[in-house]
Design brief:
This protein has helices at 3-21, 24-40, 42-49, 55-66, 72-80, 86-105, 120-134, 165-178; strands at 107-114, 137-144, 151-156, 159-164. The chain is α+β, with helices and mostly antiparallel strands. A four-stranded mixed β-sheet has the order 2-1-3-4. It is elongated and about 65 Å long.
Length: 179
């Protein structure tokens, strides 16, 4: 079975268990925590890939190392999976879980790139407008990008929308060069 297909199956199983106990977001956050730990710590990655340590011992070590930050479903899950591509599999599981989570919860992640810091009321208004237009609940992340002349750039899920002045000027330049 291909790695991606295996990851989708694992992600679906994790989501089904998480939905059963109402811990969908906690499991998503825990998967991200484990993946970030694997990326940042070569020792943690080597520990997970070690063949000398049993899967049960790995699950117990993850539980004690990450404590309350990692949901028990995820730490127990780490004790169930094994293989040579464990790190790649964990990354793919996290991606697949994020997609399935979004579908199941009618949720989408949105990243906004703006020129200046917004007030709290401005952020709330933007979030509300996006939720109304998209028909989904959103997790809004706002990044201040001083290199933008003005306008806004949005990443909605895997779609990139560019309403910046820079982009509009570039489009005008291209249209003028065509004539």
């Amino acid at each position: 079975m291909k790695l991606e297909a295996k990851a989708r199956n694992y992600a679906e199983a994790l989501l089904n268990v998480a939905v059963g106990i109402g811990a969908e977001k906690a499991v998503k956050d825990s998967l991200e925590l484990v993946n970030n730990s694997v990326k940042v710590s070569p020792e943690f990655r080597a520990f997970l890939l070690s063949k000398r340590i049993s899967e049960t011992q790995k699950a117990e070590a993850v539980k004690s190392a990450l404590g309350d930050q990692c949901h028990p479903i995820v730490s127990d899950f780490l004790g169930l999976i094994a293989g040579e591509n464990l790190v790649k599999l964990l990354i793919e599981i996290s991606k697949a879980y994020h997609v399935k989570f979004g579908e199941a919860m009618n949720f989408v992640a949105v990243t906004a790139h703006i020129t200046n810091k917004m007030s709290n009321s401005g952020e709330a208004e933007l979030k509300s407008s996006l939720e109304t237009v998209l028909g989904k609940s959103t997790e809004l992340t706002i990044n201040v990008d001083p290199s933008l002349i003005g306008g806004i750039k949005l990443r909605v899920g895997n779609t990139f929308l560019d309403a910046s002045i820079q982009n509009q000027l570039e489009n005008m330049r291209h249209s003028l060069l065509k004539v």
